[in-house]
Amino acid sequence: MKERIIFHVDMDAFFASCEEALNPSLKGKPLVVGGTKNDKRGIVSCPNYLARAKGVRTAMPLSKALQLVPEANFIRGTRGLYSDFSKRVLKVLQKYSPLIQQVSIDEAYLDVSDVLYDYKGDYKNLALKIKNDVKKTLRITCSIGIASNKVCAKIASELNKPDGVTLVPFGKEKDFLGKLPIEVIPGVGKSTQKVLKKYGINLIEDILKFDRSFYDKEIHMHTDYLMRVANGEDDREVHSDGDERKSLSHEHTFYEDTNDMDFLEKELYSLLERACTRLRRHKLKGKTLTVKVKYYDFKVNQTAFTRKKYSCLEQDFYDDAHILLNKLLANGKKIRLLGVKFSELKVDSSIQESIFFDDDRFEIVSEKMDEIRQKYNFDIIKFGKNFRGK
Predict the structure, then answer these.
(1) Which residue from 11, 68, 108, 158 could staple onto 102, CB 3.0 to 4.6 Å apart?
(2) Residues 288-337 pLDDT 10s
(3) Strands 107-111 and 100-104: what pairing?
(4) Within 13 Å and on the Cβ side, how many CA atoms surround 174?
(5) Which helix (H) or strand (E) holds 92?
């Protein structure tokens, strides 16, 4: 099989860099995007690297950031700026490979395996050309990870920020990742890191000290993912943005069959939260909601409802989901699995910018919750519907 060559292009302090490109007078001084010095109840959306050097981090309360860098420029986000720059970055990337998967407003994967003949097989030179083109065209910088697979490329892109290029040697992925701290593993939050460190798992290579049964018992999730990262493996393909996604779903199998409506309502909302978080992550909105159950006898049933408007907010779907669940449980049978699925999806690149504006407060709250969950773990923050009365 031909060796794949994957780039992960990650924009450096994207929101702050866009603001500096728009207003060069902001350069050369710590910059905090998210609110003014008077917005003390807000949170940091993006600090530039001068602010990061002083300890300011994304999702930090603005009041704390102000204590760390009182001399910094504090600004709210500029409407439309980041989506516009994101589209312009994508246009630059499209000059170098037709196989591009944009995974957020400020990062994308490129499969350059089939275009290297134009560059005499020199993938490092190609990465430098892309990086310099972005800088010259847009006056912002990016960092690029080069590897044989997506997870290695993503980890590599974080190692020499800002404005860096990092290669994971082909055939030596396991050795390269082994000495890195577990904090660099994408998607592994602080609560999981804490459990891993409890057992002396501080480096990625330490993951292989234990077998799969240990992770199934102690971590309860991530088992396959952790093992694959530790071995430097990832077989996911780079899917072009032109490959339309038809649906997105999330489901949960229970330890015991149940028809306890109080419990199932809580689980239903939790599933909606997780699915909608993924919708927002992929800049998608859905119109049709399907609720699915698998009964104790393994028979499957599902029912759906289509809204008039697209949404990515769990609050918009909960009442309809509740009605659909009641229909499926009207026969009184216990269920062993509950799931939700969104279909009729459309891309909405404006989602990630809504955190700066007051057009839709639920969307603002949901985006801020997504940021906190990504930094720590999903269950660290919940809506009230996820708690059962005593």
Answers:
(1) 108
(2) 999 999 998 888 899 999 988 889 999 899 999 999 999 999 999 999 89
(3) antiparallel
(4) 10
(5) helix 81-93
Q: Which amino acid is at 124?
A: K
Which CATH number is correct for 175-230, 2.130.10.10, 1.10.150.20, 1.10.10.10, 3.30.360.10? 1.10.150.20
CA of 35: how far to CAs of 44, 46, 56, 383, in Å?
A: 7, 10, 14, 24
Q: Give the global pTM.
A: 0.67
Of 3, 19, 71, 107, the active-site residue reads 107
Of 206, 225, 224, 265, the closest CA to residue 387 belongs to 265
The architecture (CATH level 2) of 247-386 comes to 2-Layer Sandwich (3.30)
Each residue's pLDDT tens digit, 43-88 = 898 999 999 999 999 888 999 999 999 999 999 988 889 999 999 9
Which amino acid is located at 94 in the chain?
Q
| Exposure class string for 196-222: b at 16+ Cβ within 10 A, else e | beeeebeebbbbeebeeeebeeebeeb
Catalytic residue list contains 107 = yes
